[in-house]
Specification:
Elements (H helix, E strand, L loop, with lengths): L3 H5 L5 H13 L6 H11 L4 E6 L3 H13 L3 E7 L8 H6 L1 H14 L5 E4 L2 H5 L2
Parallel strand pairs: 1-2, 1-3
C-alpha cells in the first residue's frame, strides 16, 4: 500500500491490520509504506528523526503519535502546511521545495538519525 498516512492513521498496529486485510482479500503477500519504514528504521537503528512532508497538522499529529508508540521520536516536524491531502499533487512536482524542506528538517534537528520525507502517495502523482 503506497500511502504512508493510510497505514499510520489508525495508531500502533494498524499497518499490520491492513496487511492482513489486503492479504486475505488478494491471496497475495502485502505490506504498507509504514511497515517498510519501521523495518528500515529498525535495521538502521533509527530512534530519532526529523519528520518532513506535505500533511496538514492533524495528520502530522497522528504520525508523530504512531512513531512515538514504536519508540521513534520526532525531534521536529516541518510541514508545507497544506490544508488537504489533495494539494499534494503540487508538492510532488516541486523537487526543489522538497529539497528545501529536507534541509530545514536537518538544520532544525541536528541530533536526528535521519530526515524522513513522509507521504509516498504524493511522489507517485504526475
Amino acid at each position: 500500500m503506497g500511502c504512508t498516512a493510510c497505514s499510520f492513521i489508525g495508531g500502533k498496529g494498524y499497518d499490520q491490520e491492513l496487511i492482513e486485510r489486503i492479504e486475505k482479500a488478494s491471496g497475495s503477500p502485502a505490506t504498507t509504506t509504514t511497515t517498510c519504514v519501521l523495518e528500515l528504521f529498525k535495521d538502521m537503528n533509527i530512534k530519532k528523526m526529523a519528520l518532513v512532508g506535505p500533511y496538514p497538522a492533524p495528520l502530522f499529529d497522528a504520525e508523530v503519535k504512531f512513531f512515538k508508540a514504536q519508540g521513534i521520536e520526532s525531534l521536529c516536524v516541518k510541514s508545507l502546511g497544506l490544508e488537504t491531502v489533495f494539494q499534494n499533487r503540487s508538492y510532488s512536482r516541486d523537487l526543489f521545495g522538497i529539497y528545501r524542506l529536507v534541509k530545514e528538517g536537518d538544520k532544525a534537528a541536528p541530533d536526528a538519525d535521519c530526515v524522513f520525507v513522509t507521504c509516498m502517495e504524493a511522489l507517485y502523482w504526475e
